[in-house]
Backbone:
């Protein structure tokens, strides 16, 4: 059950992480706000691309344009990346997400362990009451 659930979450996060569709092309109500910002693929892609493109210059094949294009402009204009922070901030956000999700799932696990006896007790009482109501002989 966990593998199926995680696969579904992964697909949703990949679809709006900024790789298949650029951030400005995502529909605004749900996919961009909040799904794009909680997708860990966004921060992984941005950190990877910032690591590879920042500080580099590439030859420009466009007629009438500058001779070279710097990596930062490719990230900003082509890939629509947020350039207000470094790749290390992206890595820090990813590490924070790892810790947060671990703690969240630990909390869910502990809550389900505590709730299981309460739910079973409720179901047993409910079944006893239902069988008493159906019993013709008091």
Residues:
């Amino acid at each position: 059950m966990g593998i199926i659930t995680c696969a579904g979450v992964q697909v949703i996060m990949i679809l709006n992480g900024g790789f298949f569709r650029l951030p400005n092309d995502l529909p605004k109500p749900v996919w961009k706000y909040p799904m794009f910002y909680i997708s860990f693929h966004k921060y992984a892609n941005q950190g990877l691309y910032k690591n590879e493109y920042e500080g580099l210059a590439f030859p420009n094949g466009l007629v009438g344009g500058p001779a070279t294009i710097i990596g930062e402009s490719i990230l900003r204009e082509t890939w629509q990346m947020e350039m207000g922070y470094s790749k290390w901030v992206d890595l820090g956000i990813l590490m924070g997400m790892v810790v947060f999700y671990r703690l969240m799932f630990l909390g869910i696990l502990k809550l389900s362990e505590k709730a299981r006896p309460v739910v079973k007790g409720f179901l047993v009482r409910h079944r006893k009451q239902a069988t008493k109501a159906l019993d013709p002989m008091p």
